[in-house]
Design brief:
With about 500 residues, the chain is α+β, with helices and mostly antiparallel strands. The chain contains 23 helices and 13 strands. The chain binds protoporphyrin IX containing FE. Protoporphyrin IX containing FE (HEM) binds near residues 137 and 453.
């Protein structure tokens, strides 16, 4: 050793020597990494593509290309129902394992930590452990109960009517991006339901003015995915890249925090002064409930983080589902006709429907469920950590700490459940729902970490779909095609083309 140190100190540190030393260090690091992932790994026996086992870059590069779900889907045919999709992660095909993985109170993987909001504050989505999440969920669930949502009917109606008015003036003249339109509508609704605040996103959209909140909300999920997959140091460096578009993405979180923080502060002050809102928004509920883990009121920064989280979780998911459903209807006059007949019978001459009656319209609900099945917004694997003792899946043992999950893209196309027409959009299948369909339909996930906003999401979708289909016939713009609509998946899905331009022709014109 002394000899080696002597030799090193006698070396002349020219730039060539430094480069050689760096290359040698990199080689040693890479070999050690490969040795660990191939030879020492406790899941080395799980079949899968070699690059996926070698490094995280296989998953990251497919994530960045938005097609990881397709690659993983193909792997099952080649490697069987249990596939190694990363150095320490495995994806399962068999939907019968859904309860084991998602109802077993297993922790989420560390990448969820990248979804903290309000400058690094944890929220229910980013919480890794069940107990931390349960404390937060108890406070929010009453806001999305049916009894609460029906009280907001006037808010839903006023924003939907604004959209109808805009489309009546513009939709036939030039195509409208339904993805952005619905997202702006949802942001206005969530503004009131979550923050008791008017955001006026649809008004800005109608005037082609960028809305800063809408921009931050649409940028945020991409930021979360990238941040979650990069080493914190690499992210710190990446944050400095002086590119305007990239900076909008990097700053999406602080921009939202700057907007939501003062609203939360004001609401808390009003509550402390004795105000009793007749119709509490989420910010009021969270400000008054007790954090069951801490035994005291939620800190202000946690309330801010949770409210931001709901804006994010409730916008892109629902707007994507609505967009793919509207795009499908623009190409499927048979489905549109049947839907319009049902809605005409239910709504008559009214432009907006009764919110409760919509839940009882069979074909409308069948179209939405089929939309959520075929175009699930969260279609990749939602990974969890195998707990102590490990577990056997389809004959393959996975030890404690393995990241494991199922992707809804695959589950929603399982021929054993959905039949040979699993890839087709066929709302009729929901008119005779089977137990297998119930068990394998997972757009909102299942178990203790399922989507707490699913009731709101279903209300949103019923309302938007009923209003758009009742009032308009829809045709795709010339440039809106199956390739521009190819799903691009970065945690949640969006069309590859980034938008979905459709023509809206008023039905009574
Ligand atoms: C079509 C619309 C929606 C879909 C498909 C959807 C889907 C999902 C899924 C699959 C999860 C589980 C994620 C995971 O385990 O990684 C989830 C979690 C969550 N969703 Fe939704 N969601 C939708 C709308 C909403 C809405 C409207 C809200 C609230 C305004 C919301 C709030 C949340 C929250 C807070 C979580 C985290 C829950 C936890 O981890 O305990 N979502 N959602």
């Amino acid at each position: 050793m002394e000899h080696l140190v002597e030799r090193l100190s006698s070396l002349e540190w020219t730039s060539t020597n430094v480069a050689l030393a760096a290359a040698a260090a990199l080689t040693v690091y890479t070999l050690a990494h490969l040795f660990r992932n191939f030879v020492l790994s406790p899941i080395k026996h799980v079949p899968g593509p070699m690059p996926a086992a070698a490094t995280e870059w296989w998953a990251l590069s497919h994530n960045m290309r938005g097609n990881k779900y397709l690659r993983v889907h193909e792997l099952f045919d080649k490697y069987g129902p249990v596939v190694r999709t990363g150095p320490s992660s495995v994806t399962l095909r068999n939907y019968r394992y859904l309860p084991a993985v998602y109802q077993g109170k297993w922790d989420k993987i560390a990448a969820y930590d990248g979804f903290r909001t309000n400058r690094g504050c944890p929220n229910s989505f980013s919480a890794i452990g069940q107990s931390e999440a349960q404390g937060k969920r108890r406070g929010m669930l009453p806001q999305y109960a049916t009894a609460c949502l029906v009280e907001w009917q006037d808010v839903f109606n006023s924003h939907l009517l604004e959209i109808v008015t805009f489309l009546r003036c513009n939709g036939a003249v030039k195509p409208v991006d339904v993805l952005a339109l619905v997202a702006h509508g949802l942001i206005d609704i969530l503004g009131e339901l979550v923050l008791d605040t008017q955001i006026n996103a649809v008004a800005d959209f109608a005037e082609s003015k960028p809305n800063p909140i809408a921009r931050a909300i649409t940028m945020w999920p991409k930021r979360g995915t990238i941040k979650g997959q990069l080493h914190p140091l690499v992210w710190k460096v990446a944050e400095q890249i002086p590119h305007a578009g990239w900076q909008h993405l990097v700053q999406a979180d602080s921009n939202l925090a700057d907007f939501v923080e003062p609203i939360v502060k004001k609401a808390r002050k009003q509550l402390e002064e004795g105000a009793q809102p007749e119709r509490p928004a989420l910010v009021h509920r969270l400000s008054t409930c007790t954090n069951s883990m801490l035994g005291e009121r939620w800190p202000e920064r946690d309330v801010t983080a949770e409210c931001i989280d709901h804006f994010l979780a409730g916008t892109e998911t629902t707007s994507t589902s609505m967009t793919y459903i509207m795009y499908t209807l623009s190409n499927r006059p048979d489905v549109m006709k049947r839907l319009q007949e049902e809605l005409d019978g239910f709504m008559g001459l009214s432009e907006v429907p009764d919110i409760q009656g919509l839940a009882r319209q069979p074909y409308l609900n069948a179209v939405i469920k089929e939309g959520l099945r075929v175009f699930t917004p969260a279609l990749g694997s939602l990974d969890r950590l195998v707990p102590k003792g490990g577990m056997v899946f389809d004959g393959v043992f996975l030890p404690e700490g393995t990241a494991v999950g199922l992707q809804s893209w695959t589950t929603h196309r399982d021929a054993e459940v959905w039949g040979d027409d699993a890839y087709e959009f066929k709302p009729e299948r929901w008119l005779a729902e089977t137990q297998e369909m119930k068990a394998a339909f997972i757009p909102f996930s299942i178990g203790g970490r399922n989507c707490p906003g699913q009731n709101l999401a279903m209300y949103d979708m019923r309302l938007f779909l009923a209003v758009l289909a009742r009032n308009f016939d829809v045709k795709p713009a010339a440039h809106t095609s199956s390739s521009s609509m190819e799903p691009y998946d970065l945690t949640t899905v969006s069309p590859t083309g980034g938008k979905c331009d459709l023509h809206f022709f008023p039905r009574d014109s």
